Amino acid sequence: MPKLYEYFGMVFLMFSNEHSPIHVHVRYGSYESVIELIMLEGKLVNVVFRKLGNKRALPVAQQREAELFVRAKAKDIIRKWNDYFVLNKRVTPEHITKRIK
Length: 101
What we know:
The chain is of the alpha+beta class.
C-alpha cells in the first residue's frame, strides 16, 4: 500500500491490488474517501469522490482541500500510478507542509 503524500492531516495512498480508473484513497483520522481522476485525451477533466464501503466519508472541509490538492498534483499522481502499477517501481511518499492554493 504505497503512501503518496501526507498533507495537513490527510494521507493520500494507493492500495497494491488497485484497478482503473486512476484514483487515490484519502484518509483523515477515521474518515476515508476515494477520489477518481477522470481523464480525457490525457488531460484531467474532473475529480469524483466515491464513498468507500462502510467508511465515513471525508468531512466537507477536507473534501474541498483534498480536491484542490488532487487537481494540483494530478500529473504527479498519474506518474506515480504508472510507476507503481505499470513499471513496478517504488513510490516515495512526500510530506507536504505548504498549502496548495
